Amino acid sequence: MSRIVAGVAGGTVLKSVPGDATRPTTDRVKEALFSKLESWDVLIQARVLDLYAGSGALGLEAASRGARSVVLVEKAPKAIAVCQQNAGLVNSALRATTVSVQRGSVDSVLDSYFDEHAGTPKRTFDVFFLDPPYPLGEAELNATLERVLRIAEHEATIVVERSSRSPEPNWPAGLELITSKKYGETQLWFAEPVQTN
User: Fold this and answer.
1) What is the pLDDT of residues 102-149, one digit of tens each?
2) Handedness of CA 48, 49, 51, 54 (dihedral sign)
3) What residues form DSSP beta bridges with 22?
4) CATH class of the domain whose range is 2-193
5) Which residues contact 100 (CB under 8 A, 6 or more apart)?
């Protein structure tokens, strides 16, 4: 059973995606992840993009803890339905429409937020959660991180959650690792944009 750990919607029980195609973040990892983000003071009024959202647990936790807006990105029909239900639960607790659900593949949604013709973002975000399926290859993850970088604010925080057996992501130029932490089978990587000359 997944739940909101803290904040305005704390204690709200979230619906889970049926089957074993998604891998929910454990409460222990979630608590560690969010205590770090709160210690950096990056959540309050943040615009959050939760990629490969699954049940939406990470983005919904951010909304409960003070994010201004949260977009859950998912393409699997069962997961989309769960995201919509969970977004409704959390928006109701917050008494605001803070969380929305975007249907589509991660890369197509990231591309939709960037104006190729002008070379500028249409929309930017402060916090990104990437919890990709374990089979996702390193080259694919790198290409996605390049897309993330194009719509990231200058002081954005990018969190990648992977199996502890996965290698460190191949960070694209302009994105730098801040820190990483292992929790049993899970590894969290925290990165931020850097100015490249």
Assistant:
1) 999 999 999 999 999 999 999 999 999 999 887 788 899 999 999 999
2) positive
3) none
4) alpha beta
5) 69, 70, 71, 72, 87
Amino acid identity of residue 76, one-letter, is A
Question: Rounded to 10 degrees, what is the CA torsion of 31, 34, 38, 40?
Answer: 120
Domain residue spans of the chain:
2-193
Q: At what angle do helices 77-94 and 57-64 cross, to 10 degrees?
A: 10
- Helices (H) and strands (E) counted in the chain, each on its own, are 5, 11
Q: Which residues contact 37 (CB under 8 A, 6 or more apart)?
A: 43, 62, 127, 157, 159
Concatenate the DSSP letters of all residues of 30-84 into one string.
HHHHHHHHHHTT--TT-EEEEES-TT-HHHHHHHHTT-SEEEEEE-SHHHHHHHH
How much is the pLDDT for 95?
93
CA distance 91 to 100: 9
Half-sphere exposure of 179 (CA within 13 A, CB side): 6
pLDDT band at 23 (very low <50, low <70, confident <90, very high): low
Q: Which residue from 131, 137, 141, 148 is spatially nearest to 23, judged by alpha carbons?
A: 131
Count CA within 13 A, CB hemisphere, residue 88: 7
